[in-house]
Design a protein that fits this description.
This protein is α/β, with parallel strands linked by helices. The protein has one domain: Response regulator (Rossmann fold). It has six helices and seven strands. Strand 3, helix 1 and strand 4 form a beta-alpha-beta unit. The longest helix has 15 residues.
Length: about 150
C-alpha cells in the first residue's frame, strides 16, 4: 500500500498530515491479500457499503502500518508469501488484539479452518465467494465491536 502525503490537502474527518481517517467516526476494515485483483475487489466491496478500507499486500505490511491499532475487522488470505494469515492471527492474539478476522482462501483445508476458528476467526470463506455473504459477515463483525 502506498500512502501519498499531501499536507496542504485535507478532507473533513481525516487526521493531518497523511489523510488517515480518525478513529472517532469511522469503522476501518483492513484487507490483506497478495493478489492485487482480490485486494482491489475487496476494497471496492467494503467501500460500497460505507466502510473505510485499507489494503495490504502482506501481513508484514499490515503489521508495520498504523491500521494495526485502529482496524475494526480484518479480511485476510490464508496463504501468502512470508507470514500466513494464520501466523498473523497468532501474532495479533499474542499482542493482546482480538480483532475480528475473516479468512479467505483458494485452498480450503479442514485443519487450517479448524485452527483459525479455534483461535476466534469470524469466518473462513473459500474463493470465490458471494459478495453478499462477505457484506453480512462484515456487518455482524462490526456490529459486535460497536
Amino acid at each position: 500500500m502506498v500512502l501519498i502525503s499531501a499536507p496542504a490537502f485535507r478532507l473533513p474527518g481525516l487526521c493531518a498530515p497523511h489523510g488517515i481517517p480518525c478513529l472517532s467516526n469511522v469503522q476501518i476494515v483492513s484487507i490483506i491479500d497478495d493478489d492485487a485483483s482480490v485486494r482491489a475487489a475487496m476494497e471496492a466491496l467494503v467501500r460500497s457499503v460505507g466502510f473505510v478500507a485499507f489494503a495490504f499486500e502482506s501481513a508484514e505490511d499490515f503489521l508495520r502500518s498504523p491500521r494495526v491499532d485502529d482496524s475494526a475487522c480484518l479480511i485476510t488470505d490464508v496463504q501468502m508469501p512470508g507470514m500466513s494469515g494464520l501466523d498473523l492471527q497468532n501474532r495479533l492474539i499474542a499482542q493482546g488484539s482480538h480483532i475480528p478476522i475473516i479468512f479467505i482462501t483458494a485452498f480450503p483445508e479442514q485443519d487450517i479452518r479448524s485452527r483459525a476458528q479455534a483461535a476466534g476467526a469470524i469466518a473462513f470463506l473459500e474463493k470465490p465467494f458471494d459478495g453478499e455473504t462477505m457484506i453480512n459477515l462484515l456487518r455482524t463483525a462490526l456490529a459486535a465491536r460497536s
